[in-house]
C-alpha cells in the first residue's frame, strides 16, 4: 500500500459536499457490476466531467490477463467516447483484503487520468465500499512526473 502523504488526507464521507458524495457513491455502485471471476477483486470508478455529468466503470477481467480493463480506464473511456475529455474529479472504490486497505489507481490508470487533466490537478477520491472514510488525493500527487509529448 502506498503511504499517505501530508497533502493527502483521510476524511469522513459525511464531510464531503453533496456533489462529491454523489461521485463517490457512483463508484461504489459501479463496483457491483465488476466482472472478476478470476481474482474476485471488485473495483468501481466514477469520473465527473467539467459540465457535471458522471461516467462510471468497473474492472472487467479476461482469462488473458493483459486484456483486462481497470475500472478507472473503463469510466474514463466511456466519458471520452461520449466527447468528454475535461475531467474535474475521479472516485475509485475497492477493498484490499485482509487488511482493509485503500485501493489506489494503478500506474496505467494514473497516466490515463493525467492525459485528460489538462494541466490541472484533478482530485481523486479513494473510498472503501463501506463509505465511512475517503482518502482525498490528486492526480499530481499520485503521478508527479507524468509522461507528456
Provide an overview of this structure:
By secondary structure, this protein is an alpha+beta fold. A 6-stranded mixed beta sheet has the order 1-6-5-4-2-3. β2 and β3 form a beta hairpin. The protein is globular, with a radius of gyration of 14 Å.
Short description:
With 149 residues, the protein is of the alpha+beta class.
Describe the structure using short key phrases:
149 residues
How do the helices and strands line up, and which of them pair or pack?
Layout: E1 9-12, H1 18-31, E2 44-49, E3 54-58, H2 71-81, E4 87-93, H3 107-115, E5 123-127, E6 133-138, H4 139-142
List the total number of helices: 4
Helix/strand-derived category reads alpha+beta
Any idea what the radius of gyration is?
14 Å
**What form results from the Cα inertia axes?**
globular
Fraction of helical residues:
25-40%
Please list the strands of the largest sheet in the order they lie side by side.
Answer: 1-6-5-4-2-3
Q: Which stretches of 5+ consecutive residues score pLDDT under 50?
A: none
Order of helices and strands: EHEEHEHEEH
% residues in beta strands: 15-25%
Give the termini separation: 30 Å
Largest sheet composition: 6 strands, mixed
Mean pLDDT across every amino acid position: 92
> What's the count of strands?
6
Amino acid at each position: 500500500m502506498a503511504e499517505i502523504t501530508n497533502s493527502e488526507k483521510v476524511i469522513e464521507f459525511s464531510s464531503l459536499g453533496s456533489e462529491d458524495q454523489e461521485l463517490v457513491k457512483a463508484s461504489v455502485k459501479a463496483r457491483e457490476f465488476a466482472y472478476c471471476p478470476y481474482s474476485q477483486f471488485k473495483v468501481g470508478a466514477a469520473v465527473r466531467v467539467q459540465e457535471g455529468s458522471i461516467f462510471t466503470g468497473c474492472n472487467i477481467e479476461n482469462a488473458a490477463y493483459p486484456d483486462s480493463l481497470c475500472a478507472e480506464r473503463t469510466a474514463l473511456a466511456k466519458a471520452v467516447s461520449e466527447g468528454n475529455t475535461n475531467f474535474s474529479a475521479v472516485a475509485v472504490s475497492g477493498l484490499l483484503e485482509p487488511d482493509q486497505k485503500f485501493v489506489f489507481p494503478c500506474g496505467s490508470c494514473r497516466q490515463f487520468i493525467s492525459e485528460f487533466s489538462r494541466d490541472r490537478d484533478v482530485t481523486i477520491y479513494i473510498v472503501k465500499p463501506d463509505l465511512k472514510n475517503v482518502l482525498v488525493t490528486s492526480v499530481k500527487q499520485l503521478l508527479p512526473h507524468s509522461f507528456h509529448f
